[in-house]
Amino acid sequence: MHTVEKIGGTSMSRFDEVLNNIFIGQRQGAELYQRVFVVSAYSGMTNALLEHKKTGEPGVYERFADAHNEDAWLEALDAVLEKMKAKNAELFNSDYELQAADRFIESRISDVRECMVSLQQLCSYGHFQLSEQLMKVREMLASLGEAHSAFNTVLALKKRGISARLVDLTGWNQPQPKLFQDMIKDSFDGIDLSRELVVATGYTHCREGLMNTFDRGYSEITFAQIAASTGAREAIIHKEYHLSSADPNLVGVDKVVTIGRTNYDVADQLSNLGMEAIHPKAARTLRRAGIQLRIKNAFEPEHGGTLISQDYRSEKPCVEIIAGRTDVFGLEVFDQEMLGDVGYDIEITKLLKQLKLYLVNKDSDANSITYYVAGSRKMLNRASRLIEESYPMAEVNVHNIAIVSAIGSDLKVKGILAKTVAALAEAGINIQAIHQSIRQVEMQCIVHEDDYDAAVAALHRALIEPENHGDVIAAA
User: Fold this and answer.
1) Does the first or last residue of the chain, that is N or C, have fewer Cβ atoms within 10 Å of its Cβ?
2) Spatial separation of the C-alpha atoms in residues 340 and 344, rounded to whole Å
C-alpha cells in the first residue's frame, strides 16, 4: 500500500515548498501516511563536508586528508556547524524546535570532531596509517548532512501535528555495522506505516561501505533498497524539473514535453549519457523487485510526472528524448597491425578502466578503434601516452566531440536516420560518426563540441516537435 519517495538536496533547501507540496499538500488524516521519505542533505552541505562536486574546492574531508595544515579541517568543520545552525534558524521560528535542532547537530559534530582528533593523534604513531581510515572518515562526515535534514524534517512534521518517525540509518553509536540489506530490513521491522510517516536518512552505514562503490550516489541506492525491502507499491523521485523531451534551456520551455511513460532501458541509456533519472544500480534493484519508478517535479505536485517500468513500450515507434553529453573526447587509435587481433581492444579497454575514464561508446573499422570517453583531460593524455608506448606502430589522436542522442523505448521509426542527417545538415552541423544499434532504443550522433546546443535543438525540432513532424511524436 505504501510508496517510498526520495527528495534531493536542492529541493530540500526549498523546504517550506516541499513541506506544503509533497509531505502534506491537500492530504488529511490517513492520507498523510503509507509513505516513506528518503532525504538528502540540504544543497551545499555535502560539498562543505567532503569537497565541491563540480569545482573540487576542498571541504572538511579533503582538508583532513591533506593534513598539511592540521587546523584547517577543524576550521572547516566549525564553518559547517555554523552553516547548519543557520539553516535551522531559517526553518524554525519557535525556540523549542530551534533549540532541539541545534542540540542534535551540535552533538553529532562534537562526536565527529572528537573522533577525528583522536584518529589524527593515533596516526602520529608509525603503526597506524591515516590513509587506511580515510574512507570511514568520509562516510562519517557524509552522514552528518543526511542526519541533519532528516531530523529537521521529522521535527517540522511533528510541529504540524503529524505522527512522524526518524529512521536513522547512519549507524550512529551502533557497536557493529550490519550488512546493507540487513541494516535496512532491521530498521523498518515493526513500523506501522499506516500510522507513522517515516523519514529516513539517505546515507546508510553498513559493512560493505556504500561510498566505496557509489561515493556520492549512495542516497538513491538506499532509496531503492528501502523500496525493495519493504515491498513498496511505487518508488518516487522528486526532482526540481520534469523528465522532459530535451533540455528546455536549449530547446525552449514551450517546445519540450514531459515524457509521461518510458522503461528502465531508456533510463539506463540516459545514465550512460550522464543524465541520470536514477543511478543504474538503484534502477536494477527496483527492476528486479518489480517496482515501478515515478519521476515527479517537486514543485508541481498535481502533475503525474513520468512513470518508468520494465515492460513499457510506446504504442507506436517514436523518439521520446533528445539528450547527450559534452564532457567526452574521441580517443582514436589507428594501427594497421590490429586487424584480426581482438586482444588489442581488450587491453585498451582495461587501460581506460584503470585510469577511471568512463567508456560511453566506441566504434571500429579494420585498422582503427575510436573510444568515446568521459573523464579528465589529464587522464586522457596519460592514456594516449601509454597506448603509444604499448603499441609503437599506433597513431593516437584525441578529438573534442559531443554526443547527441535520440532515445526511445521503440525507435523503429521509418526514415529516422534520413531525418536526422537532414536536420543536422540543414543546421550546418557536420556529423563525425553515427551509431544506431539493432535493438533500436538509441541513435547517437558524434558532432564537434561547439555544435552540441544547435544539434540538440535541430534534432528535437525534426524528431519530436509535433507541429513540424506529426508522424514522430514523443510519448506523453
Assistant:
1) N
2) 9
